[in-house]
Design a protein that fits this description.
single chain, 184 residues, alpha+beta, Jelly Rolls, 7-stranded antiparallel beta sheet, 4-stranded antiparallel beta sheet, 6 helices, 11 strands, 21% helix
């Protein structure tokens, strides 16, 4: 596998899942990703932890996704359980710049439609990691021709600059922490 592969396992997701349960108001505070015309993300919910300052969003998503210095969103401060995970990954994978961080939730029977992330952020932050906080055996990720089922507690690298999709055919939510970073 060249575009998606496991880089860790055995991660204890309980502290972050508990933090999510304690902070349900954080879901979908920023709905741009799931509501723009033609979005592949319409079926999911997310929590923005780090990205371009939302104060800079003027309705032009392409401009908003352009070059920027990411900032911390309220979720970072509401869920200190994220800090050792994010900073540990950044150190372990020799990051030089920390990019966007999201938590995504795909309900049963829903999906992230096929798409390619080809904007500035996806190119500049050239390492994208998934920490599977809650998975199930019937949720699969496809990157080009490669298909994997990610288990709870696993960490995966994947190339989001090529065609990919996720489909949750299971009976439970699929929740993932996504950490983007640059490696020089």
């Amino acid at each position: 596998m060249m575009n998606i592969f496991k880089v860790g396992e055995g991660f204890d997701t309980t502290p972050i899942l508990l933090a999510l349960a304690r902070n349900p108001e954080l879901w979908d505070q920023y709905k741009v990703r799931k509501e723009y015309e033609g979005t592949p993300h319409g079926d999911m919910s997310d929590i923005w932890v780090r990205y371009n300052s939302f104060d800079k969003f003027d309705g032009d998503l392409k401009k908003f996704n352009g070059p920027h210095f990411p900032v911390w969103y309220p979720a970072w401060f509401a869920m200190p359980e994220l800090r050792p995970v994010v900073m540990g990954l950044f150190q372990r994978f020799s990051g030089t710049h920390l990019g966007g961080i999201l938590i995504t939730k795909i309900p049963p029977g829903k999906r992230i439609a096929p798409h390619t992330d080809n904007g500035w952020h996806a190119k500049f932050y050239n390492t994208k990691l998934y920490v599977v906080l809650s998975g199930n055996p019937r949720c699969w990720n496809r990157v080009l021709e490669e298909i994997v089922v990610m288990k709870t507690g696993e960490v995966w690298y994947f190339n989001n600059n090529v065609d990919h999709e996720i489909y949750n055919e299971g009976d439970t939510d699929r929740i993932t922490l996504i950490v983007c970073m640059r490696n020089d």
